[in-house]
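pasting for the record
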Amino acid sequence: MVKYLLSLVVACVMAMPSVVAQTFEFRYQGQSLPDGATVTIAAELDDFDELSCETNPSSNPTNGLNLVLLSGTNANGTATLTIDENTMNPYLIQWCMGGTCSPMIVVSTITKPFEVNDGLEMVQFDAFNILEEGHLLATLTATIGDETHVVKIKFTNGEQATVPGDVNGDGKVTSVDITALYNYLLNDDSEAIVNGDQNGDGKITSVDVTVVYNLLLSDK
């Protein structure tokens, strides 16, 4: 009987799905970003008195968007940047990653390799000399080995920049935002919804609840 029980325990343990530890993530201004989160950046005047948006406005990596290794210090991967929407009419859109800079005025999607050194790779995505009000939405997908993570980047000019996770538009992320999403999903109550589409897929689903919940956990 003892042997039978031991063999049963071993069989159950072997049947359990293995959990693969996350090895990298995106961070913005030092805060971890859940998969599919949107980083919103409002246009500001640059050194040339032109309206511009930059994911990393300085050489200080804590100020902007970065890909950070959670284990190890060096890695090689592949990244794809896709411009989903653009109504801002900037003079130049540029993506610098992997040691090269790629202009994206004509093309909307670029895939290229990158190398992470010292545990961090800065994501430099910029829109210079913005000429019109509107927004630019881009999706950045990064893969290292078998692991892939996604972050969305939204530039705005003349549009209110939303706080990631702020569903009801009060300028902060609290449990009230999750409640607003639940009321919408369960009762079709959109009264408290200002920015429900948190992952930028064009609809409000349970995935958006997960994004807000993860943001709340990351602030604990």
